Amino acid sequence: GPVAAGEECTGGCAAGYVGSATLTCPADNTAPGAPLVGQPPACVACAGASEYTDEAGLLECLECEPGTFGVPRDAPHTGCEAAACETAPVVPAGVALGDCPVPGALGASACEISCTTGTIAHPAEAFECLPAT
């Protein structure tokens, strides 16, 4: 809401970021919507593997529970997800999925793959099996 002349307010950062600043409305300011005096918040992204903030205005990143990681992966983290693959991966036609741990540990478990009968591995592309000629 509006800040009265001479009063202070604290500005915070959006979810996914941490930081704050104290801003002051100049004592001689009577214009609604006039800028406040002070440095805007220096917001720092919660981007560590297990850091997140799910609400605005926090001063420190929160820690995800053990076995979870911060999401979304390509932006400041606003939540946590389980660090496990709950289902086997979907593979393209021509690829056979062998031994695959389910649930698997994200970034640590691996599945065996091979080409199905009648196809051969194409060396230039991972996961690509071409018809045998």
Helix-strand layout with pairing:
Blueprint: E1 8-12, E2 17-18, E3 20-24, E4 44-45, E5 51-52, E6 62-63, E7 68-71, E8 79-82, E9 84-85, E10 95-97, E11 104-105, E12 113-115, E13 119-121, E14 129-131
Antiparallel strand pairs: 1-3, 2-4, 5-6, 7-8, 9-11, 10-12, 13-14
Short key terms for the protein model shown above:
mainly beta; two-stranded antiparallel sheet; 32% strand
Walk me through this protein's architecture.
The protein is mainly β and 133 residues long. The strands form 7 sheets. Strands 1-3 form a two-stranded antiparallel sheet. Strands 2-4 form a two-stranded antiparallel sheet. A hairpin with a 7-residue loop joins strand 7 and strand 8. It contains no helices and 14 strands.
